[in-house]
Specification:
Layout lengths: L10 H25 L2 H4 L24 H20 L5 H13 L5 H16 L1 H22 L3 H21 L19 H12 L3 H5 L2 H22 L8 H12 L5 H16 L1 H21 L3 H19 L16 H12 L10 H34 L15 E7 L4 E3 L5 E3 L7 E7 L6 H16 L6 E7 L7 H11 L7 E4 L3 H10 L5 E2 L4 E2 L3 E6 L3 E7 L12 H10 L4
Parallel strand pairs: 4-5, 5-6
Antiparallel strand pairs: 1-10, 2-3, 4-9, 7-8, 9-10
Helix pairs in contact: 1-6, 1-16, 3-6, 3-8, 3-15, 4-5, 5-6, 6-7, 6-16, 7-8, 8-15, 10-13, 10-15, 11-12, 12-13, 13-14, 14-15, 17-20
């Protein structure tokens, strides 16, 4: 029985309703624009003869500048692609575990609180926020594409900056820069920060593009990212001078579901990193530092750019796993691809302009206003959906799974395996034949998910009162490295779990733990500095027969409807089937 993110049965019908509503709003926007004479006054995008208008730099009729146009199209389509990636079927149930929970460990307090707030909102209203994110990002992309150089385009760029900063801080934890293990190779500081910077550059007047000032900014920005990457890779606290830290950088990409032809080189490089971490890390630092300095001061810019593009392809594959796109859980193409776009735009002649054919102009201008109206409809409706979900007491989480908040399991006995508890005693998972067992998996080094689920179990235990004597709370170590009895005791003492008489925290050898993890369908995702642990509870009735499962992807609104504590308590109080 796997516990990976399951497709949401109600997601696509819910999303279809939202899209239909967005199109209806788009129709109203188009009618209002037509009634107000929008077409006559302009504003959707570039029109034939833009080069003749006062205020544009260059010869009359020469058309828009090529460099900012290429950048606008690239960023617009990247936002559209990111929005479509958010429409993958596992996103409502899997976004918190596969994205938000993975960026949380090691973050400073303010950033961690923002990410936890995002986790709480998403888990309470997964359908609403998943669909709203799709519409917002596709709407931003369409507005940037359809708006062109006009007022609509500039407004879309400003909206993209605001939304991008929200995603970067609350969704990506500042690109992971403030937590241990940050590396440009694996994607820090994040693709969305590049989108924000690109939008800011597109708001700069054409005169600065023609003078070459923006081109210089682009070149220095890409060089600065490479030099930052060299610095992060060299800082001992980031952990990349150790075999575990550097190998984990590539192992994290290799763990993603993908064809074996793509995964085999990742495993090979991870093995090389484990065997020679100092030499390989020094080579990575030297490569990024050399490329960054060369792009800043070197004379043959095109040659340096070609070498940097090759390095970015390496990082995109070996460190960023193509943004996780083969896995079905990726939310953007990651850092390397938009950075290549910025590098390419920096090489374009600053004053070069283009002029499309008349047929192309007519076709494009026939599409811009409907596309702009559709974008407006998506942005308006999605903003309303997100706002109403934020303040609503209702929850859409129960609709994301066919079975509701509790998944009933076919009767199956707990595995007959002997592990070691926190007191050093051998304990079997079938040691409690007359008790209800609540079984979970805990990483003793975790700073978020494991303490949370442990405290929720302890609170449910207290709520049971005298019936707690009929319950055993059991946790199995979920960290493949930190699995000693001393590690278990330290976690228990920190969380005050050593005061519970019916609490058992079990560990064992790595083969024993891997056997148990496999039995419950768990895959422990190991990052350079932490382990991503599923938040899962398996319930077994007296006799050790599994009857139900609850995980973090099916929680109701904990603060406003039925909290996780009361859900566990209710399940423990339920009569045995």
């Amino acid at each position: 029985m796997g516990i990976g993110p399951q497709p949401s049965a109600g997601f696509y019908p819910y999303l279809a309703v939202q899209v239909a509503g967005a199109l209806a709003v788009a129709g109203l926007v188009a009618l209002a624009a037509f009634a107000l004479g929008w077409r006559a006054r302009g504003g959707a995008g570039d029109r034939p003869g833009d080069g003749d208008r006062p205020g544009l730099v260059g010869a009359a009729g020469s058309g828009p500048l090529l460099a900012p146009t290429v950048l606008r199209w690239a960023i617009g389509w990247l936002w559209v692609i990111d929005g479509l990636l958010q429409a993958q079927p596992t996103m409502p149930n899997g976004f918190t575990a596969n994205v938000l929970m993975m960026v949380l460990p090691g973050q400073p307090g303010p950033i961690a609180n923002l990410v936890r707030w995002a986790i709480f909102l998403w888990q309470a209203h997964p359908l609403a926020f998943a669909s709203a994110t799709v519409l917002i990002q596709v709407g931003i992309g369409l507005a940037i594409l359809a708006g062109g150089h006009g007022r609509i385009g500039r407004l879309a760029l400003m909206v993209s900056i605001g939304w991008g900063l929200v995603v970067w801080v609350a969704g990506e934890a500042a690109g992971g820069l403030l937590a241990p293990g940050a590396s440009i190779v694996s994607g820090a500081p994040g693709a969305v920060l590049v989108y924000v910077v690109a939008a800011g550059l597109l708001l700069i007047p054409d005169a600065r593009w023609v003078s070459g000032a923006v081109r210089t900014l682009l070149r220095r920005g890409v060089a600065g990212v490479l030099l930052l990457g060299a610095l992060l890779q060299a800082i001992p606290a980031e952990g990349f001078w150790s075999a575990r830290g550097l190998a984990g950088l590539f192992d994290a990409a290799a763990q993603s579901p993908q064809p074996s032809a793509l995964a085999a080189p990742l495993h090979g490089l991870a093995g090389l990193a484990a065997a020679h971490p100092i030499a390989l890390n020094a080579a990575l630092i030297a490569a990024m530092a050399t490329l960054g300095i060369g792009l800043l001061v070197g004379r043959a810019q095109a040659r340096w750019a070609g070498a940097i593009a090759a390095w970015l392809v390496f990082a995109w594959w070996f460190g960023q796993d193509f943004g996780g796109l083969p896995s079905g859980t990726g939310t953007d193409p990651n850092l390397a691809l938009p950075l290549m776009v910025m590098l390419g735009v920096a090489l374009l002649a600053p004053a070069h302009r283009y002029r499309p054919s008349r047929l192309g102009q007519r076709l494009w201008h026939a599409l811009t206003q409907p596309a702009a109206a559709a974008a407006a409809g998506m942005l308006l409706l999605s903003s309303g959906v997100a706002l109403s979900a934020t303040v609503s007491r209702a929850s859409t989480s129960a609709a994301t799974t066919v079975g509701g908040t509790v998944l009933r399991l076919p009767p199956e006995h707990l595995p007959d395996v002997v592990l070691t508890d926190q007191a050093g005693r051998p304990v079997s998972l079938r040691s409690w034949p007359h008790r209800v067992v609540a079984l979970t998996f805990i990483d003793p080094l975790s700073s978020m998910a494991s303490p949370l689920i442990a405290q929720e179990l302890a609170a449910a235990d207290r709520a049971l009162g005298s019936r707690a004597r009929s319950v055993e709370l059991v946790a199995i170590d979920a960290n493949p490295v930190y699995r000693s009895v001393a590690d278990l005791r330290a976690f228990d003492a920190e969380q005050h779990l050593d005061r519970l008489r019916n609490w058992s925290f079990l560990t064992g050898s790595l083969p024993q733990l891997e056997q148990v993890w496999a039995r419950f369908g768990l895959v422990m995702v190991v990052h350079p500095m932490w382990t991503v642990t599923p938040q899962l509870v398996i319930f077994a009735r007296p006799g050790g027969v599994e009857v139900a499962r609850v995980d973090d992807q099916t929680l109701p609104d904990a603060a406003l409807t039925r909290s996780y504590i009361s859900l566990i308590g209710a399940e423990l109080r339920a009569p045995a089937p």
